[in-house]
């Protein structure tokens, strides 16, 4: 009997050893294909989650994504502006951060290249993406305010883009124990996301089946531009937009609104927050890019890689629209037109 128990224990430990060895081998092989190198998001008391600095790979397509030490998708850390530097910063969610496209292909990077193509030779343009994956509109506004009020950045123009994560809007209002619990959940996810096996199984193979359900347990949300309309607080969005306008004006920064569109969306099926942004822009004379209207009248093949995220070609179209608008803004004209007359 004792001998039988010893054999059972021996088989158990041998099986466990083989299982662990297979897991380690699987982990190492998956890392060779980039699954252990996704961007990690750490908890933040004010913004709830912010990306950790470093070079990683996008979840879709496994392309390079660089986060600097200031939490921005930009190759270098920003310092106080020097004479002849013109800085544009864009704020939004994963569509603005550049989901599934490399460091040179998101619309901020493409806009930077366009603005530096010789139309204003006396200025050096920097266009920086401050977009953060899964940020709702409320956190987009908080991020914009934090950056504009920091004297390190001194943007000449800030672009506030629409976020598709409308079901997350109440997260910034969490207080006390509820807020601490959420921050612990962010920390937990940052730990398990370092595992290539987790990334491959949950965030890749079972993304639709398991990952979004798991994420919604942490923060109820949606990637559907027309979803998440329950208990929407349009007044809160308007207050956030007004705050962005006030802080921009106080720091001599021009605000631009960018209303992004979901695939096949028309102006007849606007999300209430998209409509609110367009109405706010009109009422307050804020320059705005309406991608819903543009794509309805200028259909663009291969614009989307999924219902909301643009391809590199889609980002190019957004950059084109922003470039045309920015070149007509007073801040750009003041920096460039006098030099053109020299």
Written description of the protein model:
The chain is of the alpha/beta class. It contains twelve helices and nine strands. It has helices at residues 2-32, 94-97, 107-115, 137-149, 176-192, 196-205, 207-218, 234-250, 272-284, 291-297, 312-326, 330-340, and strands spanning 41-44, 48-51, 54-57, 64-67, 85-91, 124-129, 157-161, 254-259, 288-290. β3 and β4 (64-67) form a beta hairpin. 36% of the residues are buried.
List keywords for this structure.
9 strands; alpha/beta
End-to-end separation: 99 Å
The percentage helix is 40-55%
Structural class determined from secondary elements: alpha/beta
Number of H/I helices? 12
Strand numbers in spatial order across the main sheet = 6-5-7-8-9
* DSSP strand count: 9
User: Helices and strands, in N-to-C order?
Assistant: HEEEEEHHEHEHHHHEHEHHH
Classify the beta-strand content into a percent band: 5-15%
Rg, nearest Å: 23 Å
Main sheet makeup: 5 strands, parallel
Shape descriptor reads elongated
Low-confidence stretches: 219-229
Mean pLDDT: 90
């Amino acid at each position: 009997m004792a001998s039988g128990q010893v054999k059972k224990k021996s088989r158990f430990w041998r099986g466990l050893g083989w299982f662990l060895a297979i897991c380690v081998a699987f982990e190492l092989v998956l890392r060779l294909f980039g699954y252990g190198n996704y961007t990690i998001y750490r908890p933040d008391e004010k913004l709830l989650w912010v990306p950790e600095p470093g070079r990683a790979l996008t979840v879709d397509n496994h392309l390079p994504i660089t986060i600097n030490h200031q939490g921005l998708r930009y190759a270098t850390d920003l310092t106080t502006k020097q004479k002849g530097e013109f800085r544009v910063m864009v704020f939004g969610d994963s569509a603005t951060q550049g989901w599934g496209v490399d460091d040179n292909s998101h619309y901020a990077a493409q806009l930077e290249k366009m603005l530096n193509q010789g139309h204003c030779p006396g200025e050096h343009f920097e266009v920086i993406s401050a977009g953060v994956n899964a940020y709702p509109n409320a956190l987009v506004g908080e991020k914009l305010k934090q950056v504009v009020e920091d004297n390190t950045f001194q943007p000449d123009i800030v672009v506030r883009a629409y976020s598709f994560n409308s079901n997350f809007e109440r997260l910034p209002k969490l207080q006390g124990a509820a807020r601490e619990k959420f921050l612990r959940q962010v920390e937990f996810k940052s730990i398990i996301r370092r595992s290539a096996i987790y990334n491959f199984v949950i965030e890749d193979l079972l993304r639709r089946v398991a990952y979004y359900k798991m994420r919604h347990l942490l923060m109820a949300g949606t990637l559907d531009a027309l979803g998440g309309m329950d208990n929407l607080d349009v007044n809160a969005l308007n207050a956030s937009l007004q705050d962005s306008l006030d802080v921009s004006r106080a720091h001599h920064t021009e605000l631009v609104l960018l209303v992004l569109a979901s695939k096949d969306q028309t102006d007849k099926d606007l999300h209430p927050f998209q409509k609110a942004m367009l109405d706010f822009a009109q009422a307050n004379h804020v320059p705005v890019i309406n991608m819903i209207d543009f794509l309805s009248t200028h259909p663009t093949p291969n614009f989307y890689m999924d219902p909301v995220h643009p391809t590199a070609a889609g980002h190019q179209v957004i950059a084109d629209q922003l470039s045309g608008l920015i070149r007509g803004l007073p801040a750009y004209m003041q920096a460039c037109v006098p030099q053109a007359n020299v």
